[in-house]
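Title: Comparing notes on inverse folding

I've been comparing how different people in this forum approach sequence design from structure. To keep things fair, I'm posting one structure and asking everyone to reply with a full sequence. Here's the target:
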C-alpha cells in the first residue's frame, strides 16, 4: 500500500495479494519481457549446436521419412492415398507444433525455477514464450510444405487459407491451455510430465495424420463423433483440406471426401473445446501459481 500527497490528502492504492496478477492479460502488458524470454529460449536451446535453427527442418524431415517409408511404401498407403507425402507432412508439422508447445510449456515453470524464486513476474510468460518459440519452428516447416504443394499444383481458395489459419489457432490455444494446466501441476506433482509424455506419445495416432479419417468412421460407426470431438482431429483434417485437397484432381477428390461438416460444425466445436480448456488451464494456473516460489 502506498500513500501519495494530493491536495492536502492522500491517495491510497488498493491492496493486492502477492503473487496474483491478471493472468494471460499480463502477458500482453509485459510484451518486452516476453520477447526477452523467447530470445533466451532460442539461445539456450541451440547453444553449442552446429545446425542451430536448421534442426527445425531436420527433425520433422526424418520423422516424415520414417513414416513415409514404413506406411507409405511398406504398407502401400501411398497407393490408396494420392499425394500421400503431402498428406503425411501436413499432418506431421501440425502435430509436432502441438507436441513441442505442450511438452515445453509443461516443463517451463520448473525449468525457470531460479528466475521465479528471485523475482515476481507474470508466471504465464513462461508457457506463452514456449508457444512463440514453437511457432518460430513451425514457420519454416510450413514454407517447405507450401513449396511441395505448389509443385503438386496447389491452388487453394481464400476459405481454405483462412481455415488453415484457424487450425493453427485451434492447436495453439489447445496446447497453451493444456500447457498451463500441466505446467502448474508439474510444480506440485512431477508425475505430470509422465502424463504429458503419454499424451504426446499417442497424439499422432489419435488424429488422421498417418491414415485417412474414413478408416476411423468405418471402425467406430455411430460413435465416430467422439473422434471428431478431439480438436486435434479437426485441426489436422483442416490442414489436409487447405494443403492436400487443392493438389488433387476431380476424380481423386471424389474418392477422398472431406469430413462431414468440417468447416460448418466441427471447426467451431474444436475452437470452443480449445477455448474451454484454455479457460480451465488459466484458472488452475492462477490458483496454483501463488505458491510457485515456495514449492520450487
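Reply #1:
Here's my take.
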Amino acid at each position: 500500500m502506498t500513500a501519495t500527497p494530493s491536495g492536502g490528502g492522500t491517495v491510497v492504492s488498493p491492496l493486492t495479494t502477492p503473487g496474483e496478477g491478471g493472468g494471460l492479460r499480463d502477458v500482453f502488458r509485459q510484451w518486452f519481457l516476453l520477447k526477452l524470454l523467447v530470445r533466451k529460449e532460442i539461445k539456450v536451446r541451440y547453444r553449442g549446436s552446429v545446425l542451430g535453427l536448421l534442426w527445425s527442418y531436420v527433425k520433422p524431415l526424418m520423422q516424415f521419412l520414417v513414416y513415409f517409408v514404413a506406411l507409405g511404401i511398406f504398407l502401400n498407403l501411398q497407393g490408396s492415398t494420392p499425394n500421400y507425402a503431402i498428406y503425411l507432412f501436413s499432418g506431421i508439422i501440425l502435430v509436432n507444433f502441438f507436441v513441442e508447445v505442450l511438452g515445453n510449456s509443461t516443463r517451463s515453470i520448473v525449468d525457470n525455477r531460479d528466475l521465479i524464486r528471485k523475482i515476481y513476474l507474470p508466471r504465464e510468460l513462461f508457457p506463452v514464450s514456449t508457444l512463440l518459440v514453437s511457432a518460430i519452428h513451425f514457420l519454416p516447416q510450413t514454407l517447405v510444405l507450401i513449396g511441395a504443394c505448389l509443385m503438386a499444383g496447389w491452388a487453394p481458395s481464400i476459405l481454405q487459407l483462412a481455415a488453415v489459419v484457424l487450425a493453427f489457432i485451434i492447436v495453439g490455444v489447445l496446447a497453451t491451455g493444456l500447457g498451463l494446466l500441466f505446467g502448474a501441476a508439474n510444480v506440485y506433482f512431477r508425475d505430470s510430465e509422465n502424463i504429458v509424455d503419454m499424451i504426446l506419445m499417442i497424439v499422432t495416432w489419435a488424429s488422421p495424420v498417418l491414415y485417412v479419417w474414413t478408416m476411423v468412421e468405418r471402425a467406430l460407426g455411430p460413435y465416430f463423433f467422439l473422434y471428431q470431438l478431439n480438436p486435434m482431429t479437426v485441426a489436422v483434417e483442416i490442414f489436409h483440406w487447405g494443403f492436400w485437397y487443392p493438389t488433387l484432381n476431380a476424380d481423386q477428390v471424389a474418392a477422398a471426401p472431406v469430413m462431414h461438416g468440417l468447416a460448418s460444425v466441427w471447426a467451431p466445436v474444436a475452437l470452443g473445446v480449445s477455448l474451454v480448456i484454455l479457460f480451465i488451464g488459466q484458472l488452475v494456473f492462477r490458483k496454483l501459481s501463488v505458491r510457485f516460489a515456495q514449492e520450487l
